[in-house]
């Protein structure tokens, strides 16, 4: 795993709350569970257990991610973890960043989640990328990232663990996943909070609006994170987002399950 100082833990996390509810925290492409930990911790402090797994090909090497042959491996892994939480908790939620948001939306069409939070979720990449990558990935394996991760806070950007390159095969699979999600948005009925960094250079705010307008959820909310880029959970607005996400999910935990929050236990 490349990027970030030793003080940052990029590994999977499990934070135990006191309620009969849990949230599956899904990171973005080339990222790690670390980028979702602030949301997980806020949920656990309010009693909702939080689990942040590393998706296939992540928290390893760019070569490992390149070897993931299909976006279905990410979908299947997220589904596996969601069903595992469902066997242990009465309420199961999802919180996803970027590709993690796409996975949450994809599984929401299967009524896997009782509510979901999606952050910086790109429904489409720029047209030039969508045209070039399906051909380019066969002759070029990796594309270097320029300027590091899309994070406004310079210190957070410096310590953020992420691959320094994009495996183009993975980007091609992301494009396929986006196509699948766009075609199935109307089948999402779960309550949803859509958050987006106003300074996001990776995903368009138009995608956030399209998600809000495209889902069939009766309850839908939008949160603008005005000082942040793409990776909002570690950026300037991380506390704002974490509070909003935890409060939103707590509202969808039955009142009979709510108890006074206690300090969560942490296991990795």
Please give the count of helices.
Answer: 9
The CATH H-level superfamily is: Alpha/Beta hydrolase fold, catalytic domain
* Count of β-strands: 10
What's the overall geometry? globular
Question: Main sheet, how many strands, which sense, barrel?
Answer: 8 strands, mixed
What radius of gyration results from the CA coordinates?
A: 17 Å
Poorly predicted residue ranges: 2-6, 258-268
CATH domain fold name: Rossmann fold
SSE pattern, N- to C-terminal = EEHEHHEHEHEHEHEHEHE
CATH class: Alpha Beta
Strand residue content: 15-25%
- Which range best describes the helical content: under 10%, 10-25%, 25-40%, 40-55%, 55-70% or over 70%? 25-40%
The assigned CATH architecture is: 3-Layer(aba) Sandwich
Number of spatially distinct domains: 1
Span between termini: 17 Å
Average pLDDT across residues? 93
Secondary-structure blueprint:
Blueprint: E1 13-16, E2 21-26, H1 37-45, E3 49-52, H2 62-66, H3 72-86, E4 91-97, H4 99-108, E5 115-119, H5 127-136, E6 142-144, H6 154-159, E7 165-167, H7 168-184, E8 192-197, H8 205-214, E9 220-225, H9 238-250, E10 265-267
Parallel strand pairs: 2-3, 2-4, 4-5, 5-8, 8-9
Antiparallel strand pairs: 1-3, 1-10, 6-7
Helix pairs in contact: 1-9, 3-4, 4-7, 5-7
Q: What report would you give on this structure?
A:
- The protein has 268 residues and is of the alpha/beta class.
- The chain has one domain (13-254): Rossmann fold (3-Layer(aba) Sandwich), CATH 3.40.50.
- 35% of the residues lie in helices and 18% in strands.
- The protein has nine helices and ten strands.
- It has helices at residues 37-45, 62-66, 72-86, 99-108, 127-136, 154-159, 168-184, 205-214, 238-250, and strands at 13-16, 21-26, 49-52, 91-97, 115-119, 142-144, 165-167, 192-197, 220-225, 265-267.
- It has an eight-stranded mixed sheet, sandwiched between helices. A two-stranded antiparallel ribbon has the order 6-7.
- Helix 4 (99-108) links the parallel strand 4 and strand 5 (115-119).
């Amino acid at each position: 795993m490349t990027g970030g100082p030793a003080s940052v833990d990029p590994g999977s996390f499990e934070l135990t709350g006191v309620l009969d509810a849990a949230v599956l925290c899904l990171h973005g492409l080339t990222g790690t569970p670390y980028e979702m930990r602030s949301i997980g911790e806020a949920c656990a402090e309010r009693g909702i257990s939080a689990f942040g797994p590393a998706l296939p090909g992540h928290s390893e090497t760019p070569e490992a991610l390149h070897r993931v042959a299909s976006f279905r491996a990410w979908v299947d892994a997220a589904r596996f973890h969601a069903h595992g939480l469902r066997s242990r908790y009465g309420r199961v939620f999802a919180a996803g960043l970027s590709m993690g948001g796409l996975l949450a939306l994809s599984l929401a069409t299967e009524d896997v989640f009782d509510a979901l939070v999606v952050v910086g979720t790109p429904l489409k990449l720029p047209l030039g990328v969508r045209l070039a990558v399906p051909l380019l990935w066969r002759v070029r394996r990796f594309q270097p990232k320029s300027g590091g991760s899309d994070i406004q806070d310079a210190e957070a950007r410096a310590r953020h663990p992420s691959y320094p390159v994009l495996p183009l095969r993975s980007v091609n699979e992301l494009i396929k996943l986006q196509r699948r999600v766009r075609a199935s948005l109307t089948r999402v009925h779960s309550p949803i909070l859509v958050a987006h960094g106003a300074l996001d250079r990776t995903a368009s705010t138009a995608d956030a609006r399209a998600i809000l307008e495209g889902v069939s959820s009766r309850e839908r909310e939008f949160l603008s994170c005005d000082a942040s880029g793409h990776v909002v959970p570690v950026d300037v607005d991380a506390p704002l987002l974490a509070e909003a996400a935890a409060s939103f999910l707590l509202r969808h935990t039955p009142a009979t399950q709510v108890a006074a929050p206690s300090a969560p236990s942490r296991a990795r």
